[in-house]
């Protein structure tokens, strides 16, 4: 009985002791690490931009325009008529392919099929989301897209690698309301 009271007393003492907050096991990364990562990404983006500039210089037959949205593009088939371009929430019917900067096919238009893209409302390549809004029905444009405006640091998990710039030739087939 005496032992039972002793254990009960210890149990009450331990249970009534004030709880202390635990410290995190993995503290947040320091600002030094974040600054270092930002600087590394700037260097990687600069290298990638130099590769794209080299690609554009080698294609002297085409005139490339630099978009404010972080990609370059050239018209393969330009329509001079004053036709409408896709607007937000409309459906842009497109056919496209994806190549690497060496011109090697990654995904053919046959593999990708015709896509019904809801403008500004679909999960799609960020640069092409903006680029399609430049197009008129019947136009074909080749877009040169840096990785940070395409599939980023993860690639697509299949054929497109990490930090890989891509070329995509897009034809706007139709615009549906």
Explained architecture:
This protein has 177 residues and is of the alpha+beta class. The chain has one domain (34-176): Roll (Chitinase A, domain 3). Helix content is 29%, strand content 23%. The protein has 4 helices and 8 strands. Strands 1-2-7-8-3-6 form a 6-stranded antiparallel sheet. A two-stranded antiparallel ribbon has the order 4-5. The longest helix is centred in the N-terminal third of the chain and has 28 residues, at 31-58. The protein is elongated, with a radius of gyration of 27 Å. The N and C termini lie far apart (85 Å).
Features:
177 residues; alpha+beta; Chitinase A, domain 3; six-stranded antiparallel beta sheet; two-stranded antiparallel sheet; 4 helices; 8 strands; elongated
């Amino acid at each position: 009985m005496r032992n039972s009271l002793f254990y009960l007393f210890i149990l009450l003492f331990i249970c009534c002791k004030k709880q202390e907050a635990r410290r995190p096991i993995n503290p947040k990364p320091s600002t030094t690490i974040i600054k270092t990562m930002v600087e590394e990404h700037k260097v990687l983006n600069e290298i990638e931009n130099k590769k794209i500039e080299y690609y554009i210089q080698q294609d002297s037959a085409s005139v490339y325009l630099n978009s404010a949205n972080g990609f370059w593009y050239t018209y393969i088939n330009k329509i001079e008529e004053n036709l409408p371009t896709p607007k937000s929430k409309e459906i842009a019917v497109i056919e496209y392919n994806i190549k690497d900067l060496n011109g090697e096919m990654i995904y053919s238009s046959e593999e990708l099929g015709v896509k019904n893209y809801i403008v500004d409302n679909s999960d799609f390549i960020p640069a092409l989301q903006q680029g399609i809004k430049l197009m008129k029905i019947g136009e074909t444009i080749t877009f040169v897209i840096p990785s940070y405006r395409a599939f980023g640091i993860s690639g697509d998990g299949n054929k497109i690698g990490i930090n890989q710039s891509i070329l995509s030739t897009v034809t706007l087939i139709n615009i549906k309301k």
